[in-house]
């Protein structure tokens, strides 16, 4: 029985990562119909997405730090429990206020991936860590690709609450699997939790992401958006000063400022921006009316099926990424991934009118994303102490989220600026879409340059040695080595 639990640790954690991405995606097909179904305005309904984004951004570094201090398995189960509870509330109500609150609860699941990566580092032998971490990092793309067609299929043929009943059942299954298969990591970083730092970081992120996500609706020069941006800068400066002055900070900024940590974090921000344009623009292109001259007029379900190969590619290529990192180093894998993303967007610029070319271009971007996202956590693991892996990976995932939110705002602004009238309605032009691809490809090349600038790891900070030290101090680690 013990051997079975150890063999199921990776599948249980990967299922949790996939489920987290599914939970974030399933609400997308509902957005056009939710005003009618709930009696709320379109602006209120959009908060079902915004609330998840804000909660995930705030809770990811907070729960990561809590995992390092109080136990990664314990905090992982809390995150999965909050996610499942949020889905259950959505299944039981049509009140938009409760729906928004429930979606905010589900945002806690964003911490699942960094916590799981840290558990894998602590519990697995070095020979298995690379491929397991690569798979865990790729679950975000896999879940997103699976979630859209699943949700569209349920919404098309059943009551919309059924979708949340399904995700609740999946969440309960994932929670039970993690509780049974995942053992508590012995690696801890005890101390006092920095509640002041958590509140400051939360306030800064809420101001920043509110401004980014609502800028196109409120107006980028509106007093509300400008005020939020100014508040984000001021609160961040105060938070930085507080973090540098406290003995037990939420985020170890002295460590984060080191090039071996700072550059992977910056690259995560850039790659998150570059990757997200693929999902945003591809879906709109496939669903655009044929009368535009470039759109294919597909349904949401058909669009999801067209994007499914990209998610399957991430599943298949994650072990390949690990082998490249083992042979050449994660720095080279990250740079290669960013370059492949740029190549994928170049393909999209050449031809975005034919379905097969759209699918091929999106798949190439997914190949690059798999390589980059699989390498990022490995770089972080090599650069930080074992006792800070959850919080450091939480910050890395947070920066990916900020990059994605920024990309969403940039693409929306670009497409809004390049429109043409179709039946009296303004629709984006093909030129606008191609400019979005060019912007994302250029950002990907910047990510490639940042990756190449990452210093080589010092032998004393290498992952195998850290893992050996953790294993020597842990009976559980010794047992897993033998397995």
Describe, in short, the structure shown.
This protein is mostly helical and 483 residues long.
What does it look like?
The chain is mainly alpha-helical. Helix content is 79%, strand content 2%. The chain has a two-stranded antiparallel ribbon. It is globular and about 65 Å long. The model is unreliable at 460-483 (pLDDT under 50).
Helices and strands, with pairings:
Blueprint: H1 2-7, H2 9-25, H3 34-38, H4 42-45, H5 47-70, H6 72-92, H7 96-106, H8 112-123, H9 126-157, H10 160-181, H11 195-218, H12 223-245, H13 253-256, H14 259-287, H15 300-328, H16 330-350, H17 355-383, H18 389-417, E1 419-422, E2 425-428, H19 430-452, H20 463-472, H21 475-482
Antiparallel strand pairs: 1-2
Features:
single chain; 483 residues; two-stranded antiparallel sheet; 2 strands; disordered C terminus
- Count helical runs: 21
Rg to the nearest angstrom?
22 Å
Shape: globular
Structural class of the helix and strand makeup? mainly alpha
Helical content class: over 70%
**Stretches with pLDDT under 50, minimum 5 residues:** 460-483
Helix-strand sequence? HHHHHHHHHHHHHHHHHHEEHHH
Strand content: under 5%
Overall mean pLDDT:
86
Counting DSSP E segments of at least 2 residues, the number of strands comes to 2
Largest sheet: 2 strands, antiparallel
> What is the distance, rounded to the nearest whole angstrom, between the alpha carbons of the first and last residues?
13 Å
Strand order of the largest sheet: 1-2
């Amino acid at each position: 029985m013990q051997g079975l639990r150890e063999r199921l640790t990776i599948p249980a954690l990967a299922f949790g990562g996939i489920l987290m991405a599914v939970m974030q995606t399933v609400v997308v097909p509902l957005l056009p119909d939710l005003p009618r179904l709930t009696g709320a305005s379109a602006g209120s309904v959009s908060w079902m997405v915004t609330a998840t984004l804000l909660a995930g951004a705030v809770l990811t570094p907070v729960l990561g730090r809590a995992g390092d201090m109080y136990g990664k398995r314990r905090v992982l189960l809390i995150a999965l429990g909050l996610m499942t509870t949020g889905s259950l509330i959505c299944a039981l109500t049509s009140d938009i206020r409760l729906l928004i609150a429930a979606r905010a609860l589900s945002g806690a699941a964003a911490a699942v991936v960094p916590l799981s990566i840290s558990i894998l580092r602590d519990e697995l032998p070095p020979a298995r860590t690379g491929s397991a971490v690569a798979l865990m990092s790729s679950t975000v793309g896999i879940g997103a690709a699976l979630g859209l067609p699943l949700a569209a299929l349920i919404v098309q043929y059943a009551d919309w609450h059924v979708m949340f009943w399904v995700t609740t059942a999946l969440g309960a299954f994932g929670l039970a699997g993690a509780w049974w298969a995942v053992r508590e990591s012995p690696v801890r970083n005890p101390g006092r939790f920095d509640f002041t730092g958590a509140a400051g970081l939360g306030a800064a992120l809420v101001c920043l992401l509110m401004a980014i996500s609502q800028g196109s609706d409120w107006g980028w020069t509106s007093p509300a958006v400008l005020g939020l941006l100014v508040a984000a800068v001021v609160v961040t400066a105060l938070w930085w000063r507080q973090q540098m002055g406290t003995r037990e900070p939420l985020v170890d900024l002295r460590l984060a400022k080191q090039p071996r940590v700072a550059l992977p974090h910056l690259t995560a921000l850039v790659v998150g921006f570059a990757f997200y344009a693929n999902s945003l623009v591809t879906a709109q292109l496939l669903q655009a009316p044929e009368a535009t001259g470039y759109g294919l007029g597909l349904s949401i379900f058909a669009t999801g099926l067209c994007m499914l190969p990209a998610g399957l590619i991430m599943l298949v290529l994650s072990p390949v990424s690990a082998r490249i990192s083992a042979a050449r180093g994660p720095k080279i894998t990250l740079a290669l991934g960013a370059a492949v993303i740029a190549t994928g967007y170049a393909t999209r610029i050449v031809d975005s009118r034919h379905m097969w070319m759209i699918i091929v271009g999106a798949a190439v971007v997914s190949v690059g994303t798999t390589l980059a996202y699989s390498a990022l956590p490995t770089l972080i693991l090599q650069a930080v102490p074992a006792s800070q892996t959850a919080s450091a990976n939480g910050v890395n995932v947070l920066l990916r989220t900020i990059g994605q939110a920024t990309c969403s705002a940039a693409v929306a602004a670009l497409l809004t600026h390049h429109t043409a009238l179709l039946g009296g309605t303004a629709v984006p032009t093909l030129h606008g879409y191609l400019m979005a691809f060019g912007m994302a490809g250029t950002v990907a090349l910047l990510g490639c340059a940042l990756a190449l600038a990452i210093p080589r790891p010092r032998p004393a900070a290498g992952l195998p040695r850290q893992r050996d030290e953790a294993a020597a101090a842990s009976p559980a680690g010794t047992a897993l080595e033998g397995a």
